[in-house]
Design a protein that fits this description.
The chain has 262 residues and is mostly beta strands. It has strands spanning 7-10, 19-26, 34-35, 42-43, 49-52, 63-70, 77-78, 82-83, 92-97, 101-102, 108-114, 123-127, 130-131, 139-142, 148-154, 166-172, 178-181, 188-193, 202-209, 215-223, 230-233, 240-247, 253-261. A hairpin with a 5-residue loop joins strand 22 and strand 23.
């Protein structure tokens, strides 16, 4: 069983209603035995079934046997011993390399190490408490769209899971750049610009100007995260170099940049 788990040992005897049973435990590989008493992790110490609830790692390799007697007969009969194996729970260490704060274009790799052996697909990842489908290995790559709190749990080779969640938070890294990518492109690209958490959602206006300074594209976006993605589709426009302007709700320019459409 896993540490903290429950199990039972069962013995059957013949000889009638006068039988009495007493479970015994050895923690020195069978050299000596002591009587088990009800209480703590034990119940049923004088019945045919000994129940162990919440077994600790201190009981690993403990041996259990039952001693039976039947009045009015003298003497006792001792059963063979059964051994309890208590497997330790995995303890996890979750790290992010090389960043715990990222901006567009950067990625970071989350990696978890376990104190016990975990099968290749024995990992379950969560982002903000929601399971991530298909994420079942010991690493996870996160980009700017993955900002949030990550938790991982495991089921090791013994079927034991970690008792304490391994958690790490990936945040946004402030940057004054306006990210326009890919560039060059065929007319489809995205724009990202940092907005401080707590100031969202905010309207952001994207205006695009041609080489003559004429505004040829304008769109309003709702910014709901520090680097909200603003998608632009200009596939029907002529090839060339365009000026991109990001403005606030009052039309005040925040940032400008260029994009090349081929």
């Amino acid at each position: 069983i896993c540490a903290g788990g429950n199990t039972t040992f069962t013995a059957a005897s013949t000889g009638g209603a006068g039988n009495s049973l007493q479970w015994q435990v050895s923690t020195d590989n069978g050299a000596t035995y002591t009587n088990v008493a009800d209480g703590g992790v034990y119940s049923g110490a004088t019945t045919g079934t000994l129940t162990i609830t919440g077994a600790g790692s201190n009981l690993n390799n403990a041996r259990y046997r039952v001693v039976a007697s039947a009045a009015p007969c003298a003497g006792t009969v001792t059963s063979t011993a059964g051994t309890l194996t208590v497997n330790p729970l995995p303890v996890l260490n979750l790290t992010a390399n090389p960043f715990t704060a990222i901006y567009p274009g950067q990625t970071t790799t989350l990696a978890v190490a376990s104190t016990t052996t975990v099968p290749a697909n024995g990992y379950t990842w969560f982002k903000n408490g929601v399971i991530i489908p298909g994420a079942n290995t010991n690493t996870l790559v996160v980009d700017v769209d993955g900002i949030g709190t990550y938790t991982v749990s495991v089921a090791d080779g013994n079927g034991c899971g970690n008792a304490v969640p391994a958690t790490i938070t990936i945040t946004s890294s402030p940057n004054e750049m306006m990210f326009i990518y890919p560039s060059p492109n065929s007319g489809q690209f995205q724009i990202r610009y940092y907005s401080a958490p707590g100031n969202t959602p905010l309207p952001r206006f994207v205006n695009v100007y041609d080489s003559k300074g004429a505004r040829v594209y304008s769109q309003v976006y709702s910014v709901a995260s520090p680097y909200s993605r603003m998608d632009v589709n200009m596939t029907s426009f002529q090839k060339g170099i365009y000026q991109v302007e990001l403005a606030d709700r009052n039309g005040v320019r925040i940032k400008t940049g260029r994009v090349v459409i081929l």
